[in-house]
Automatic annotation (TrEMBL):
InterPro entries: Alkaline_pH_Ca-Antiporter, NaCa_Exmemb
Gene Ontology cellular-component annotations: plasma membrane
GO molecular-function terms, A-Z: potassium:proton antiporter activity; sodium:proton antiporter activity
Keywords: Membrane, Transmembrane, Transmembrane helix
Protein name in the entry: Ca2+:H+ antiporter
Chief location bin: membrane
Residue ranges of every copy of the Sodium/calcium exchanger membrane region domain listed in the record: 30-183, 217-358
Protein's membrane topology: Multi-pass membrane protein
Location in or out of the cell: Membrane
Keyword Membrane: yes
Pfam families: Na_Ca_ex
The keyword Transmembrane belongs to this UniProt entry's keyword annotation: yes
Transmembrane segments: 30-49, 61-85, 97-118, 130-150, 162-180, 214-232, 252-270, 282-306, 312-334, 341-359
Length: 361
């Protein structure tokens, strides 16, 4: 009984109940406010349970669990919206994946660097592992979001069925190879290091959770993430109305929803940076970007069997410039294996530019 009185257990269950009661309906403003509070609580609960799992299984498995779990649920939401939304959702996958890449590679990395460098002048991490992760993200993003703009087999910024199948297989293969590298062959490249580059000793301040506790946290993590993504969708009509009344582009809605969905990773990454574990922040941010592309493209390739209408994947010129600049800046941040407050500022300015251009294209 005491476990169920704990807020980290009660809030995800209440959020899931709220999702069941409000899904497919237009709730009144009072209910919308309650849903927003439960959404925020579910985000915090998800971070707590992710950290319990990470403490039990160790890094980099803990970061991988959170990144993959939230991405799988996010992909399920994207596919369901595309199947039910018709032609107006033709660019939904592209917009969501690009927003996820910019949020993770600039927003989360920038905030984590800020938290870490305010504590220490210089933060250290493994350039080998982080560089490999960045190379994988850049390759996946280019294959899936840039090439469709220039291919000629299909009209517009789209892939032909054969090209989409190749992109899906390549995405899954690269993501699977990275997970193998991260968790088996070169796991040490993704473990936290101290500010002078030495391996961080295991956390001795708290005992490792039991296996039973870890499984309970895993179940509650999934419940919390389902609630986060679902309640973000419930809130989307209110967000759409606010965006429309403000005279902003409709693409802003996707950015806001992506920000809500990626809140668990953001909070977990910043908290890790404050604990002098910046490598975990990088594992979370780049891992989420990679999972977002590597799982979304195969999912929509499969769903395209049932989808009617075009599937727009290619980015426009402005977004391609932002993506190229992000890859270039991230490379310069990663190569030395050490970063300062300056790199934090550069990434945050890039993130601000993405948000500004979403509002004022």
């Amino acid at each position: 009984m005491r476990r169920f009185l704990n807020w980290t257990t009660a809030v995800p269950l209440l959020a899931l109940l709220a999702l069941a009661l409000t899904w497919g309906r237009e709730p009144p403003m009072v209910v919308v406010i309650i849903v927003a509070v439960l959404l925020a609580g579910a985000v915090l609960a998800a971070v707590h349970h992710a950290e319990v799992i990470a403490h039990r299984v160790g890094e980099p498995f803990g970061s991988l669990v959170l990144a993959v779990a939230v991405t799988v649920i996010e992909v399920a939401l994207i596919v369901s919206l595309m199947i039910s939304g018709g032609e107006k959702t033709a660019s939904l996958a592209r917009d969501t994946v690009f927003a996820a890449v910019m949020i993770t590679c600039n927003g989360i990395v920038g905030l984590s660097l800020l938290a870490a460098t305010l504590r220490r002048r210089v933060v250290a991490f493994h350039a080998e592992g982080t560089g490999g992760a960045l190379a994988t993200v850049a390759t996946l993003a280019t294959l899936s979001l840039v090439l469709p703009t220039f291919t000629t087999s299909a009209q517009g910024p789209e892939f032909s069925p054969g090209q989409l199948a190749f992109a899906a297989v390549a995405s899954l293969a690269l993501y699977g190879l990275f997970v193998l590298t991260q968790t088996v062959r070169h796991r040490d490249y993704f473990l936290p290091v101290t500010h002078d580059g030495q391996p961080t000793p295991p956390d001795s301040h708290a005992p490792r959770p039991t296996t039973r506790t870890a499984f309970v946290s895993l179940a509650l993590l999934l419940v919390a993430l389902v609630a986060v993504v679902g309640l973000a969708k419930v809130e989307s009509p209110i967000i759409e109305s606010a965006v429309s009344e403000a005279g902003l582009p409709h693409a802003v809605v996707g950015v806001v929803i992506a920000l809500l969905v990626l809140l668990p990773e953001t909070i977990a990454a910043v908290r890790a940076a404050k604990r002098d574990q910046f490598q975990i922040s990088l594992n979370l941010s780049l891992g989420s970007a990679m999972a977002s592309i590597g799982l979304t493209i195969p999912a929509i390739a499969l769903a395209s069997i049932w989808l009617d209408g075009p599937l727009v994947l290619g980015l426009g010129g402005t977004h391609m410039v932002l993506l190229a600049l992000t890859v270039g800046v991230s490379t310069l941040t990663v190569v030395p294996g050490r970063a300062t407050l300056l790199q934090s500022g550069v990434h945050l300015v890039l993130f601000a530019a993405f948000l500004f251009l979403a509002v004022s294209p």
